[in-house]
Amino acid sequence: TKQTKTSPITKFLKNKYPNKIIINAIGLRREESHGRAKKPVSQNNPDLRSVKLQTTGIDWFPIIEYSLEEVWLTHRKFGFARHEAYG
Fold first, then answer.
1. What does pTM read for this prediction?
2. What is the distance between the alpha carbons of residues 48 and 17, in angstroms, rounded to a whole number?
3. What pLDDT is stored for residue 1 in this prediction?
4. What is the mean predicted confidence (pLDDT) over 28-42?
């Protein structure tokens, strides 16, 4: 996914927000995999660093502690549409 998702997103963010500290919010949850269970709530993202554009950034995982049930409850509470992949 680095070439198809992550790289275009970080490139867009650096160009959109030069001279800024970028906070990249990502919807990962610990329950999803063993690797994600070990993730911190935030971490430096070296791909958001640009000397030319004077950017730095972090990845933030705001729902990392959510259960799947909490995700769907939040969707219903705020009227968020489900992504088509979830039926």
1. 0.84
2. 10
3. 62
4. 96
Parallel, antiparallel or unpaired: strands 42-44 and 21-25 = unpaired
Burial class (CB in 10 A: 0-12, 13-18, 19+), 14: buried
Burial 72-82, CB ≥16 within 10 A → b, else e: eeeeeeeeeee
Give every CB contact of residue 47 below 8 A, 6+ residues apart in sequence.
Answer: 6, 7, 10
| DSSP code per residue over 24-53 | EE----GGG-HHHHT--SEEE-GGG-BTTT
